[in-house]
Amino acid sequence: MNITLIIFLVFGLFILLSSFFTVKQQTSVIIERFGKFLSVRQSGLQLKIPLIDRIAGRVNLKIQQLDVIIETKTKDNVFVKLKVSVQFMVIKETVYDAFYKLEYPHDQITSYVFDVVRAEVPKLKLDDVFERKDDIAIAVKRELNEAMTTYGYTIINTLVTDIDPDIQVKNAMNRINAADREKTVAEFEAEASRIRIVAKAKAEAESKRLQGQGIADQRREIARGLVESVDVLNKVGINSQEASALIVVTQHYDTLQAIGADANSNLILLPNSPQAGSDMLNNMVASFSASNQVGEMMKNKNKKRKPKADEHDPGFKAPLPPQPPETPEIEE
Fold first, then answer.
1. CB proximity list for 221: less than 8 A, separation 6 or greater
2. I want to staple 152 with a disulfide (CB 3.0 to 4.6 A). Which of 97, 158, 177, 271 is the partner?
């Protein structure tokens, strides 16, 4: 076979194969003819004229993300670093504009993000930057959409993903937060202590009330027992004064017995002589007798005294008031 024919066959096969090309999904290909824009080819198997048409470039139609880190100053003179994530994509219908009008889209987007953030953040204090980061993201998205739509790009979303103030500012904020939490803990502990004190006071008051009620009931029963004892002694011929004295002496000896039963008691009961009981009994009987005699004398004295006339008595007549002297009549 002729070598020249072989060369022509190989060259023809190369030309044929170079006429076909494939475009991936979510990708657009720009075709130029002699350096001039010819067409935009979408995904699939495509055909071009060899040596005349060429692939000028490929445009990605997927959603892309660009992270921009900006350092700026807040209204209260605190330097912060903000990380803004911009999600964008090329509009399928405006691939020509995206390819020919804008050469470096990432640089263009970065410039707009810097411009918007450095215009919005200095209006806010540091705390407001954290609270209103969504407002900053919305402002960035609005500005980018207005600018990038002209170049065939659309902004899907913008997010302020990180706010990093100076390390000294962060430490101060942490100390403020810790102090505030310690203050809250102290308030809760004080409230708990107050509740415990109030509950203890209420418990003590209730205990005292019940203790007093118990003492009152005890004394009431003791008094009832004494009355019954006096009644029993009266029935056997012992009068009330002697019965009361006898009961007191009996309680005296019961107390001595209770004291003697406790080996570790340091209580001393005075008087503590052997004849103390009999002396007490005699003194009490004598005092009761003397009081009865004094009472009888007072009654007799009151009976001998003449009662005064009572003006409320029906038989009582009040004396007439003195009459003025009569004036004698003068005869003419």
1. none
2. 97
